[in-house]
Amino acid sequence: MTKKNHFDALIIGAGPAGATAAYMLATSGFKVAVIEKRKFPRFKLCGGLLTQKTIGLLKDIFNTNVGDLKSGGVIQYQSNFYGIGDHNGNYLQRRLDFPFHFVDRAIYDACWLDKAVKAGAKVIFKESAENVDIATGEIITRTGNRFSSRYIIAADGVFSRVRSILSQRDLLKRRHRQDIAAALEIFIPRDKIRGLPNYPAIFYGYIPWGYAWSFPGPKSQIFGLCSLKAKAKQSLFKGLNTFIQAQGVRPENLAKPKGYALPYGNFLSKAGYKNILLVGDAGGFADPLLGEGIYYAHKSAQMAVDAVKHSWGHPQKAEAIYSQLLNKDVTAELKYAKMIRQFLFSLPTRWQLKVLGFSFKQISHKLEEAVQGQRSFKLLLPKSRI
Ligand SMILES: Cc1cc2nc3c(=O)[nH]c(=O)nc-3n(C[C@H](O)[C@H](O)[C@H](O)COP(=O)(O)OP(=O)(O)OC[C@H]3O[C@@H](n4cnc5c(N)ncnc54)[C@H](O)[C@@H]3O)c2cc1C
Questions:
Q1: Cα-Cα-Cα-Cα dihedral of 24, 27, 31, 35, to 10°?
Q2: Given 140, 196, 213, 269, which residue has the most CB atoms within 10 angstroms?
């Protein structure tokens, strides 16, 4: 192997998790490379909704704010309202204390990767990590290239190759694919639809163990639906069609839906092996109730970088440090969100909708604060008291 293929840290995947790790490490003077199987900018199926906690985190990590992101064309839309409803026509509209912001993931992801490159990270596009040689710390790509590094940060998304390899070798918990949700989205140009609310709304009752959403954007409205794969037992396509038509969209306006997956409760308590750390969707770090993953991608990557810095003389200790950081701030929260999800979706639909209706009438402000990041999903207590 030539010396140019040896790095302090090798990051697999250039989504928000990978770009954050690359940016933070490169800024601190580490020699970093990112291996990304596609070419950027690339399309990523997503609703693109950013919560308040994400905006705060972007300030901490990238020293940026909503004004900068709007003027740079990264934030394209914002909404001070949201709606929540069900398939029986029950519906509640609420005003938010802090708006939701919306991004186009092609632009959003390219923005952070660009910052990582400017900070000194090297990006190798169109190389797919195929195998990990754990003994030598090497990544072997599909084209046969080998890259070695002191640390490997796997940010390779929900179908993480690195996670699969570690699981196959019994170095990580197996059967992680059970807690994955399948998702569909359709983008409909706004000039083809009239009269839809210009704020995001989510709806229950169209699919078991999941929900549907209608998100606005500057050019198109996004309709989506997701459900826990192992439990759905109903066609997602049918659920999405019924949902869209219930929103008053005529079938002739429907494009073909695109499908992808998102982590839905398969987060790891032990998030790697020695000097190999799994971040973002690769580690299952997305909210198992509402599917929010962008915040957790940035947050877990930030923690992985802390673990790298704190284990520099002893890279084999990185995973233990990383998992400890995660368990305190991220995994604990995801566990509570998963408990709520399990309770809610185990109820018969009629009861589910009653519980949701009651919760949103009685404690909607606390729920909003939990989503935005001021409260924990643990009994909806303020974060300061956890
Ligand atoms: C339909 C849908 C809607 C969603 N809506 C929202 C939302 O509104 N708000 C929100 O917060 N979250 C949302 N999410 C979740 C969010 O998209 C993810 O949690 C987030 O993208 C995770 O970022 P990441 O960097 O971990 O992974 P990704 O963004 O998936 O990036 C992984 C990168 O790794 C690359 N890669 C994969 N394998 C390899 C390999 N072997 N070698 C090299 N490169 C590789 C990929 O090409 C990709 O660029 C949604 C997800 C879906 C599916």
A1: 50
A2: 213
Instruction: Tell me the HSE value of 124 on the side-chain side, using a 13 A CA sphere.
Output: 20
Of 239, 234, 321, 238, nearest to 275 (Cα)? 321
Q: pLDDT, tens digit, for every residue of 193-228?
A: 888 889 999 999 999 999 999 999 888 899 999 999
Check if 46 has its Cβ closer than 6 Å to any atom of ligand 1: yes
Q: Are both 211 and 255 inside the same structural domain?
A: yes
For the segment 131-164, what is each residue's pLDDT rounded down to a tens digit? Answer: 999 888 899 999 999 999 999 999 999 999 999 9
DSSP string, 185-200: EEEEEGGG--S--SS-
**Residue 155 near ligand 1, beta carbon < 6 Å:** yes
Which residue has the least CA distance to atom 30 on ligand 1?
A: 157
Do residues 280 and 155 touch, judged by C-beta distance below 8 A?
yes
A 10 A CB-CB count for 328 gives 12
Return the CATH number at 202: 3.30.9.10
Q: Give the nearest ligand 1 atom to 224 CA.
A: 1
Range of the domain at 253: 178-263
pTM, to two decimals:
0.97
